[in-house]
Request: fold
Amino acid sequence: MTNGRVPFDPGHSQMTKPLMRLIATLLLFTIGSVQADQPFEPNYDESLIPEYTLPDPLVLIDGTVVSDAETWNTKRRPELIQLFEEHVYGRATGKPEGMHFETLDDEPQALDGNATRRQVRIYLTEGTDGPFLDLLLYIPNEGRPVPAFLGLNFYGNHTIASDPNIRLNLNWMRAKGAGVVDNHATDDSRGTSASRWPVEMIISRGYALATMYYGDIDPDEDDDFQNGVHAVFDKQVTGELAEDTPRPLDAWGSIATWAWGLSRALDYMTHDPDIDGTRVAVMGHSRLGKTALWAGATDERFALVISNNSGCGGAALSRRAFGETVGRINTSFPHWFNDKFQEYNNNEAALPVDQHELIALIAPRPVYIASAVEDQWADPHGEYLSGCKADPVYKLLGTPGLPSESNDLPAVEEPLKTGTIGYHIRTGKHDVTTFDWQQYLDFADMHLERNP
Ligand code: GTR
Reply:
């Protein structure tokens, strides 16, 4: 149990210290019963959004106005990274020294001979008994080295296509997934998220697709950071913690850990001669969209960043408190962010940053933000406004930024994709669709010129 992280999970009680447990239980009874009396009511009415003032991405904490690229790069950008680490996502560790790769499968005749299917195990420590991440790649056989899309998946690589040769992921996963029995995948889950991963289309447009199961990095459960890569690397972030010492408020939450895993996948990709590691787009949906944005902000090797319906803690402005709020997300998913972020529950105005500055941290590299009409929970307008409010940074760095002057949501299915900040809102629900991918591919064509 860490600082005020409720609800307490008795299933992991053997891992927590007695005093912390007592405090946690008391908190559960007091706060928990108050919460039960007051169910969360999301606001979906623009006119009820509280008055708010966004922090200016082009003003340093000491009040200095940032008016040139050098001050942005050497002062404001590092300052903002630090603020997000401290108040939102947490600090991560670096690249592990003993990391190495093993190719488990290399099939040059995949997808009717158009692509190579490669499955690579990324060992994070020197031996082979430490944690590892399994990366699946489909790489076009023509035009190498090719640009690529990299994204985490929710239920294992074997769900992204029905190809029976994709290794079945044996790790713990959330029970919600199709074909998941007792928190483990079965053959029935093969191909069940294929609609989100149009592999043939991506390959036919000349891009590789690389994907990895996010639970290989850190299982998505509130377990007090005992499992996943935390089990091995947590001390590098928190230091040695004495008995009853709470976890540091700025230690990495799961989103920061997943983002760290994306950087490890990119480490492999820059080393694979068939991929051009300087032209890798990182893409993610929902919680993994939040993750893609943070990975893109922290790892400048990512050449393009795509947020698909990332919502609260992703592209959506926190201060609007529209749909999902900081308080709500920290209650449902206390392990996603650092512990400090809890202090901003129902208190967004006190945050020293807002999410437009996360978008600005990607500048001058291209970023694409996508929303869906039926995904009001993720606040489409707040996602778009983040792009608008990051635009001054893109302009300062000499790029076109967002190709619109308006703060009003663009028309449905009329993508803004000619600038450095792309945006669309499509019909339909919280999901990744072919329409979304078509825009990402067009945007990538513009920015990741093939065979330059
Ligand atoms: C929801 C959560 C969102 C989003 C989504 C997902 O329950 O409230 O912030 O991340 O999960 O990742 O599917």
Residues 179 and 188 are 5 Å apart (CA to CA). The domain at 10-447 is CATH 3.40.50.1820 (Rossmann fold).
